[in-house]
Design goal:
It is built from three helices and 23 strands. By secondary structure, it is of the alpha+beta class. Among the domains are: about 75-220, Methylamine Dehydrogenase, Chain H (7 Propeller), CATH 2.130.10.10; about 230-325, Immunoglobulin-like, CATH 2.60.40.1220. The strands form six sheets. A five-stranded mixed beta sheet has the order 17-23-22-19-20, with no helix packed on it. It has a four-stranded antiparallel beta sheet with strand order 1-2-3-4, with no helix packed on it. A four-stranded antiparallel beta sheet has the order 5-6-7-8, with no helix packed on it.
């Protein structure tokens, strides 16, 4: 009996020991994790806070470089900031060390520099009443003398895209200037707006103009290259007419997305119609002049679109003599006149003879 009790107590101790060990294995790791969470910030959270923290620092970090004029616009390219400095023209500032901008180098303009855009080795300045000023900045420390292309309005804004400068020209709307040769800008081409053009931005095929009281003006400034020629959808076959015809005509119909002009040529004679604007899908009719002599006449029509693509069609008209050897219409008229005159003459002679007998 005593052995049985001892055995029971031994088993009971073993069970308690196992329970204690299991508890230790569960509780201690969880306790360590909890302590670690309370004492550390995850790396991911630290990085996230650093990225989204856009608040300015407590102490000032604004660095100034004063100019002699009034800075109205700025464009940064490389290590330099190009400032449209109104009455002082273009100011060029070395910003290789942004915390310590260099002393401005000036290139004055004849107008008032309102806006600047840099492309390649040139700065393009919207220069108020002087239009567009183009300045060579291949050496930023020594800008070149401005080259001007005046505009009819007041140049307030400029944007360069490809070979063109787009100028917001106040009361003249949008001025487009060819700058494929920057030192010799082309003559401005204008698209007027209902408001006053203050700023311009070009994206894709369109210029977006800040047009004061008229809001945003969107102007198409490019057209995609059209490589497809017009299509002649209806053309006459060669035909014959008899001499003495009247009211004969020839009709063609062509289609194209961007039609321009057409011309009609009588081969051996020259252009007899056009250049004239044509409309896609609308018939073009040419009336053959009356009274052509018997013979062969060939007409050639050429349709051209706005991209210079063209298509031609030729029609041959044969004018035949009247069958049976009959006289041509002109000779019939002449014979009638002569015959009528002869009849009148005979009648006059008879009347005179009768009067003599009386």
């Amino acid at each position: 009996m005593q052995k049985s009790k001892k055995k029971f107590k031994s088993n009971k101790l073993r069970i308690l020991l196992i329970i204690v060990l299991i508890s230790i294995l569960i509780v201690i790791p969880n306790l360590l994790i909890s302590i670690q969470r309370d004492s550390e910030i995850p790396i991911e959270e630290k990085n996230l806070n650093e990225i989204i923290n856009t608040r300015p620092p407590q102490e000032s970090s604004v660095y100034y470089e004063d100019t002699t004029g009034r800075a109205l616009s700025v464009y940064v390219s490389g290590d330099y900031a190009y400032v449209a400095d109104e009455g002082s023209g273009l100011a060029v500032i070395d910003i290789s060390d942004p915390t310590n901008p260099g002393t401005p180098v000036y290139e004055n303009t004849t107008g008032r520099a309102y806006y600047v855009y840099v492309s390649g080795d040139y700065a393009y300045v919207a220069d108020d009443d002087s239009g567009l000023a183009v300045i060579d900045i291949s050496d930023p420390t020594n800008p070149g003398t401005p080259v001007y292309e005046d505009t009819t309005g007041s140049a307030y804004g400029v944007y360069v895209s490809g070979d063109y400068a787009y100028v917001a020209d106040y009361d003249s709307g949008l001025a487009v200037i060819d700058i494929s040769e920057p030192i010799d800008p082309g003559t401005p081409v204008y698209e007027d707006t209902t408001g006053y053009a203050y700023g311009v931005y070009v994206s894709g095929d369109y210029a977006y103009v800040a047009d004061w009281t008229s809001g945003l003006a969107v102007i198409q400034v490019r057209k995609r290259v059209d490589n497809e020629a017009p299509i002649i959808s209806n053309a006459p076959s060669d035909f014959n007419v008899e001499a003495g015809y009247t009211g004969q005509g020839i009709s063609w119909t062509a289609t194209d997305a961007n039609p321009d002009t057409y011309t009609i040529e009588l081969l051996g004679t020259g252009i007899v119609a056009g250049p004239t604007v044509w409309t896609s899908g609308v018939a073009i009719t040419y009336n053959i002049p009356d009274g052509f002599s018997p013979g062969v006449y060939t007409y050639n029509i050429t349709f051209t679109d706005e991209s210079g693509n063209s298509i031609s069609n030729t029609v041959t008209v044969t004018i035949k003599s009247i069958p049976g050897g009959a006289l041509p219409f002109e000779l019939i008229i002449i014979a009638s006149v002569i015959g009528g005159g002869a009849v009148i003459g005979v009648a006059v002679v008879i009347l005179l003879r009768r009067k003599r007998k009386e």
